[in-house]
Amino acid sequence: MAAASRRSRLPSRVTSRRKRMPFKSPFTLVLVVLTASRCFADDDHEMEEFLKREFSLTKPYQGVGSFGSSHWELMGDAMVTTEQVRLTADMQSRQGAVWSRIPCHLKDWEMQVHFKVHGQGKKNLNGDGLAIWYTKERMQKGPVFGNMDNFTGLGVFVDTYPNEEKHLERIFPFILAMVGNGSISYDHERDGRPTELGGCNAMVRNLKHDTFLFIRYIRRRLTVMIDIDGQHEWRDCLDIPGVRLPRGYYFGATAITGDLSDNHDIVSLKLYQLTVLRSKKEEEEEEEEEITIPSVDNMELLRSGDGEEGMSSIALFFTVLFSMLGCIFLLIIGLVVYSHWSESRRKRFY
Predict the structure, then answer these.
(1) Which of 36, 154, 183, 272 has its CA 20 to 30 A from that of 299?
(2) Domain, as residue range, for 8
């Protein structure tokens, strides 16, 4: 891979540290180089990466959608153009998808998504969004951004329309992640808040520059970053440890429109295999614990934290309100008692 493209894909916290500085001696130069190499090795977990073309979708999309001639299959209203795979056009009631035909058995991987969301609708008059999947099921139409509900695996959603009337100061479009085990339903009315692992706002509509989504799964840790500002720098979106995803699932991308619509385009999906150095103990522990059902450690803790966050503003409002009413009530009682005391005191002097 070219050095320039490798540098552009690195998170900004790595690239921003590279500054020129004078070296006063060869010994200093050697010491700094060794220290820097150790730091970069620690940041990347001493890993190497390899582009997996059989799991990547890039131009010129040769044979995509044709039976037996491509690793990718189209579904619904999706279509291939010279510039992108259009999941949905800017029209009402459309669903489209592109799914990998080959299950992925990689232990650690990284997906870079080049996408576009654009249309004629004004702010909050567009919808509904797109999703990137790593799931047991494939090629299933449904209400969750064009995929089935109660899915098994990972979904990363680019949600462009708020369904919840009081969305608790959340700014849309919003990117969030969810892990399903086949029995967890996505809550449309609350924009997925009860089951989300985390997320971030991302103003991705109608931008003239490229927009990217970065999904990394390494050592049972899920990291999502975005590059949407045209600065070629990654911005943190969510970072969750203890995410357990089985191997052998399928990658895909889906989108859906309803009464409101947008063009949802996938320019490229690039999957990289990450080769991470592990200790013998780590390898033995992972081999002993075979993951068969997707799960997240401390998911109940994440949910309770989200619930507390959602209720904090309401609880604070009522706390302040009742505190003020209590203070006013006590003040009135105090004034009444004081007036009675003053009157009785004056009567004693007559």
Answers:
(1) 272
(2) 3-41
Distance of CA 16 to the CA centre of its chain: 23
Q: Using DSSP, how many helices (H) and how many strands (E) does the chain show? A: 5, 17
The secondary structure of residue 342, as a DSSP letter, is H
In degrees, rounded to 5, the angle at the alpha carbon of residue 203 between the alpha carbons of residues 154 and 308 is 60
How many whole angstroms from its chain centre is CA 17? 25
Q: Judge if pTM exceeds 0.70.
A: yes
Residue 60: which CATH number? 2.60.120.200
- Res 25 pLDDT > 60: no
Cβ burial of 292 (10 Å; 0-12, 13-18, 19+) is exposed
- Please give the C-alpha separations between residue 284 and each of 168, 247, 290, 295, in angstroms, as whole numbers: 45, 17, 11, 20
Q: How many residues does the chain have?
A: 350
On whether both 226 and 250 belong to a single domain, the answer is: yes
Q: Do 247 and 323 fall into the same domain?
A: no
* Count of domains for the chain: 3
Three-class SS state of 48:
strand
Task: State how far the Cα of 346 lies from the Cα of 350, in Å rounded to an integer.
Answer: 7
- Across the range 126-153, mean pLDDT stands at 97
Residue with tokens 């730091």: 39
DSSP per-residue codes, 221-263? EEEEEEE-SSSS--EEEEEEE-EE--SSBEEEEEEE-SSS--E
Q: Are residues 20 and 101 in the same domain?
A: no
Question: Are 80 and 204 found together in one domain?
Answer: yes
For the stretch 244-279, pLDDT in tens is 999 999 999 999 999 999 999 999 999 999 998 888
